Amino acid sequence: MISWTDHASMMLPEDPLHPVPWTRMDELSAKLRIDVPISQPVYGMVETALRWKNTDASKKIEVYTTGERFESSAIVGVYKVTDSNDYRITLHCFNKETSALKNALIMTSRIEWKSPKTTVFFNAFHADLLSIVNECLSTHKFQIFTKRNCIYKWKSPEQLVEHEISRVG
């Protein structure tokens, strides 16, 4: 049996982004669910990966962590468009310490940063991580074509119930 660290070291021993093995995806999903709505984009990507498990589509989504203990790590979800250098990336930090995430994004070889054909879309991440995304893109000399700040106002379960009652009545 391969342990988490053995699996990660077999892939790319020097890379700061370690793949989350399938055996730990349910555990990660449960931890992300606790942080919803802040973790919603990464949680959704993990749930999609679990749904796609054992299919050809499962090769399109990779989920990485900056450390073995999820509670003190950052999670990076990467959806790679087939036969291209187009990446859709979403991020989540379980704590306020974001330096590991910043260093991992800057140093990782899991994204082909040097290819002129590479396009990276950072999708739906918490506003606290915007400076990390900007620094990562500028470090790799990526031009930002569009930057859209959408503020989502999440309704509480009580507000959703109120809305449903007022719609029905």
Automatic annotation (TrEMBL):
Origin superkingdom: Eukaryota
Protein name: Uncharacterized protein
